[in-house]
Write a structure and sequence with these properties.
By secondary structure, the chain is of the alpha/beta class. The chain has helices spanning about 1-5, 30-35, 35-50, 75-85, 95-100, 105-115, 130, 135-165, 190-205, 210-220, 235-245, 290-295, 300-305, 350-355, 365-385, 390-425, 430-455, 465-475, 480-490; strands at about 20-25, 60-65, 90-95, 120, 125-130, 180, 185, 250-255, 255-260, 265-270, 275-280, 315-320, 325-335, 340-350, 490-495, 500-505. It folds into 4 domains: about 1-150, Resolvase, N-terminal catalytic domain (Rossmann fold, 3-Layer(aba) Sandwich); about 180-305, Putative Large Serine Recombinase, Chain B, Domain 2 (Hect, E3 ligase catalytic domain fold), CATH 3.90.1750.20; about 315-365, no CATH class; about 395-450. The chain is built from 19 helices and 16 strands. A hairpin with a 5-residue loop joins strand 15 and strand 16 (about 500-505).
């Protein structure tokens, strides 16, 4: 009798009771146990069992997004915005773990939804705010369990890795110089010869990092050594990482890095040395500990360290040959009286890393001359035409918003005209009217959602209020002009002959 009565109940139309079905999948492993299809099917079944009209448009998907980072979840942000605008009456989740894996985020999401009269339903836990009322202990308990799960997994994974490390078992990418036999690392003699060469050149022949790179690529071209793992040529950063990696003297360091949540996002950070776990004699040695210590002696590193000159155009200068960033490198010359003169030249970062094997050596340009030329060009640019003194990003965004608003208004007008065609002019049938109205309402809903996401786009962060202020500050060339250049310049493409293409942040 119960089922017979339920079947005769009137179906609650989606338009009368708008809801959202929230679906989140974060990893491939997650996909196996809580796939998009699985979540949608469970929610679909509950919707029909409770006599609501099912709508595919109700699905809001965050695909490949961690449940511990709320700011990255655009679909959830859209749901919260719709709730605040009273465009939703209910949100359905397969489980609290799909809602969030962070206790603070889960409670905050629930609080926002309930504060705007939105019913919250999580199916696995049997939680329904409509029947639970103000009693939140059930939701809080399951939220705590959901938040604890990734921490438990992390602890278990760390414990498993630590156990493997104690047994000398390797997991992850195999370091250059080794190969894997079973679960353990063994020396790859062909690659190990390159490791020994690098340490020998650095420790016993006085080679610096760049000179080692040039030597390795020379030997590579002659077929005397093998290429690195992830590139066809040896590069500066590869050599630097090898010289700092204790694995080559048989030492493995565990728990060196960790992730923390800050400002709603995850960050990768280095642990203090007190938290490191060091395993000596962990794998076969390619070099001795003495060789490694010599290469990483603190006093020697400090003596060899070169400090990059001030570069107010950092990140803006691009090589016209390979597209890599241009950097400023110091060069010194001693006069007959012993006085030291410093010259800071622009170099392609790819050429710096690997020499002519990666790029070309540009015509010599001193940074101070280049900076003066850029300032002169900007001043001339500011005088040749009238600026509207508004950030171009903001202008483009404003135009997109205006265009999208126009499209929404146009669609609303079409919807209004459609009603007139059906009710007043009787030029279309009821079926045509319903079909076209459904199509227009779907279009309007999508446009409104896109408009919401567009309005949330972060503008370029600049430290100077506007372009006009930046041009004013150009008058004082003695100050650090990094913020000024950031506001005015998009990029500077520098060609091998020294010519420069300017791209601005304004029109």
């Amino acid at each position: 009798m119960i089922f017979e009565e339920k079947d005769t109940q009137e179906l609650i139309k989606f338009d009368d009771y708008p809801y959202a079905v929230y679906v989140r999948v974060s990893t491939d492993k997650d996909e196996q146990i809580s796939s998009k299809e699985n979540q949608i099917d469970i929610c679909h079944h509950w919707i029909e069992q409770n006599n609501y009209e099912w709508k595919d448009e109700a699905i809001q998907l965050d695909d490949g997004i961690s449940g511990t980072v709320l700011l990255d979840r655009k679909a959830m942000q859209l749901i919260l915005e719709k709730a605040k605008n009273h465009k939703l009456k209910m949100v359905i989740f397969k489980s609290v773990s799909r809602l969030a894996r962070d206790l603070k985020d889960a409670l905050e999401i629930r609080e926002v939804l309930l504060a705007h009269g939105v019913r919250v339903v999580t199916l696995e836990e049997g939680y329904d705010s409509l029947t639970e009322g103000k009693n939140s202990w059930k939701f809080e308990m399951f939220s705590m369990f959901a938040a604890q799960y990734p921490q438990t997994v992390s602890v278990a994974a760390s414990a498993s890795l630590a156990a493997k490390a104690r047994r000398g078992e390797h997991s992850g990418r195999i370091p250059f110089g080794f190969k894997k036999e079973g679960k353990h690392l063994v020396i790859d003699e062909e690659e190990a010869d390159v490791i020994r060469l690098i340490f020998s050149l650095y420790n016993h022949h006085g080679y610096g990092h760049k000179r080692i790179v040039y030597k390795l690529n020379e030997e590579l071209s002659l077929g005397n050594i093998v290429k690195p793992q992830i590139s066809d040529k040896w590069q500066l950063t590869t050599v630097q990482r090898i010289l700092k990696n204790p694995i080559y003297c048989g030492i493995f360091v565990a728990n060196r890095y960790t992730t923390v949540k800050s400002g709603g996002r995850k960050k990768f950070m280095r642990n203090p040395k007190e938290k490191w776990t060091i395993y000596k004699e962990w794998c076969p040695k390619i070099i001795s500990e003495e060789e490694f210590e010599k290469a990483n002696n603190r006093k020697r590193r400090l003596a060899k360290r070169s400090f990059s000159p001030r570069n107010e155009l950092r990140g803006k200068m691009v090589c016209g040959e390979c597209g890599s960033k241009m950097v400023v490198l110091p060069s010194y010359k001693y006069k007959q009286n012993g006085e030291k003169s410093e010259f800071n030249y622009l170099k392609c970062s790819a050429y710096r890393r690997g020499g002519k094997d990666l790029c070309i050596n540009h015509a010599p340009i001193q940074y101070k001359d280049f900076r003066a030329m850029v300032i002169k060009k900007l001043n001339a640019k500011g005088k040749t035409f009238k600026l509207n003194f508004k950030n171009d990003f903001g202008e483009r965004k404003k135009k997109k918003i205006k265009q999208m608003t126009y499209e929404i208004q146009n669609a609303e007008e079409k919807k209004k005209r459609l009603i007139e065609l059906y009710l007043e002019d009787a030029l279309i049938s009821k079926e045509e009217f319903q079909s076209k109205r459904k199509e227009l309402e779907g279009e309007i809903e999508k446009l409104n959602d896109d408009l919401f996401l567009l309005e949330r786009e972060e503008e370029k962060s600049i430290d100077i209020s506007n372009i006009q202020n930046a041009f004013e500050q150009l008058k004082n060339t003695e100050q650090d002009l990094y913020n000024v250049f950031t506001v005015l310049i998009d990029k500077l493409v520098i060609h091998r002959d020294g010519t420069v293409d300017f791209f601005y942040n304004f029109k």
